[in-house]
C-alpha cells in the first residue's frame, strides 16, 4: 500500500525557510508550490504554531511571482488534516507554545487562514488523501479546487467534540452540496468516501492514491497555461457573490489594479507628477 504521495524528485525545499509543523516545496518543472501539514502522527491535526507557519507559507506563495498555483495537502496518505488538535484544546481555544500561551490564553484563529486562502489571488488546490475531517474539512472547502485520492474520507465532527463552524464551514458547504445535505454533515457527523464526495460536488476529481500528486500537478499545469490575471478575477468574482461587501471589495480592488495598467490611468498619474491638468479628452466615453 502507498504510504506517501510526495515525489521528492519533483520538488525542492526553499533554503532558509525553517518549518516544523508543515513543509514548503517549489515544483521543479511547473510554477507551483506544495504546502503540506507535517504532523502525520496526529493525522495532521493543527495547533497554533501550525497555523502560524501556514499563514507565513501562503504569504510567501502569494508574493512569489514565479508561483501560479498552490497545492495544499498533508504528509502521508492517512490524512489531509483532521482538524484542531484536541489534546491541547482549552476553554478559550488551543494552547500553543508562545507568549500568549504562557499567559494561559488560547487561540482559535484558523478563521484567519480561511480568509487568507480565499483572498489569495492564485488558485489553491486541496490534494486530499485520507481524512479531511472537522477543521480539516473546512480547509478543503475553502480551497478553490479539491482533488481527492480514492481513499479520501470527508466529514464534520464538531458536535461530537463540542464544536461547530457557522462560517465558511456551513455557508460554503451549503453552496457546494445544498442546504439539506450540508445540515446532514453537521447534524449527524457522518463521513463520506471519495466517490460520494464527487457525486455531491464536494470534490472535482478522484484518482488512485499513487496517481494523486501527478494528476493534481497536471491540473495545475492546465491552469498555468491560462491568463493569470483572468484567473485572479475569476476567483474574486466567486468571492464577490459569496463574501458580501468583503468579496465585492476584493473584486473592485483587483479591477482597479487592472485599470492601473491602462493609458487612461497612466495619464492621471503622469499629469500629477508633471504638475499639469490631466487630458482625458483622448479617451472614449464607451457605451
Task: Please explain how this structure is put together.
The protein is α/β, with parallel strands linked by helices and 287 residues long. The chain is built from 11 helices and 13 strands. The strands form 3 sheets. Strands 1-2-3-4-8-10-13 form a 7-stranded mixed sheet, sandwiched between helices. It has a 4-stranded mixed sheet with strand order 5-9-11-12. A two-stranded antiparallel sheet has the order 6-7. Helix 5 (168-177) packs across helix 6. The longest helix has 17 residues, at 244-260. The N and C termini lie far apart (62 Å).
The overall pLDDT average reads 91
Uncertain stretches of 5 or more adjacent residues: none
Strand fraction equals 15-25%
Total helix count? Answer: 11
Q: Can you give the helix content as a percent range?
A: 40-55%
Largest sheet: 7 strands, mixed
Write down the secondary-structure element order: EEEHEEEEHHEEHEEHHEHEHHHH
Kindly, what is the distance between the CA atoms of the first and last residues, rounded to a whole number of angstroms?
62 Å
Q: Which word captures the global form?
A: globular
What is the structural class?
alpha/beta
Please give the number of β-strands: 13
Neighbour order of strands in the largest sheet: 1-2-3-4-8-10-13
Radius of gyration: 21 Å
Amino acid at each position: 500500500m502507498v504510504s506517501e504521495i510526495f515525489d521528492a524528485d519533483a520538488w525542492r525545499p526553499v533554503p532558509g525557510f525553517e518549518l516544523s509543523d508543515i513543509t514548503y516545496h517549489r515544483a521543479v518543472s511547473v510554477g507551483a508550490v506544495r504546502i503540506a501539514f507535517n504532523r502525520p502522527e496526529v493525522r495532521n491535526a493543527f495547533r497554533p504554531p501550525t497555523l502560524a507557519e501556514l499563514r507565513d507559507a501562503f504569504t510567501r506563495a502569494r508574493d512569489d511571482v514565479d508561483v501560479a498555483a498552490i497545492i495544499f495537502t498533508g504528509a502521508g496518505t492517512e490524512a489531509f488534516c483532521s482538524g484542531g488538535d484536541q489534546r491541547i484544546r482549552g476553554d478559550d481555544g488551543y494552547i500553543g507554545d508562545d507568549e500568549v500561551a504562557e499567559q494561559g490564553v488560547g487561540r482559535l484563529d484558523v478563521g484567519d487562514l480561511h480568509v487568507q486562502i480565499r483572498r489569495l489571488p492564485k488558485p489553491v488546490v486541496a490534494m486530499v488523501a485520507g481524512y479531511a475531517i472537522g477543521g480539516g474539512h473546512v480547509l478543503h472547502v475553502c480551497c478553490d479546487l479539491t482533488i481527492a485520492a480514492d481513499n479520501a474520507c470527508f466529514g464534520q465532527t464538531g458536535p461530537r467534540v463540542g464544536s461547530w463552524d457557522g462560517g465558511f464551514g456551513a455557508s460554503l458547504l451549503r453552496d457546494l452540496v445544498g442546504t439539506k445535505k450540508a445540515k446532514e454533515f453537521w447534524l449527524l457527523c457522518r463521513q463520506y468516501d471519495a466517490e460520494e464526495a464527487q457525486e455531491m460536488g464536494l470534490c472535482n476529481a478522484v484518482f488512485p492514491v499513487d496517481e494523486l500528486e501527478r494528476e493534481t500537478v497536471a491540473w495545475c499545469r492546465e491552469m498555468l497555461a491560462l491568463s493569470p490575471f483572468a484567473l485572479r478575477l475569476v476567483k474574486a468574482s466567486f468571492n464577490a457573490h459569496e463574501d458580501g461587501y468583503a468579496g465585492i471589495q476584493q473584486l473592485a480592488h483587483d479591477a482597479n489594479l487592472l485599470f492601473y495598467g491602462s493609458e487612461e490611468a497612466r495619464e492621471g498619474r503622469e499629469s500629477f507628477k508633471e504638475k499639469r491638468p490631466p487630458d482625458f479628452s483622448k479617451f472614449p466615453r464607451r457605451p
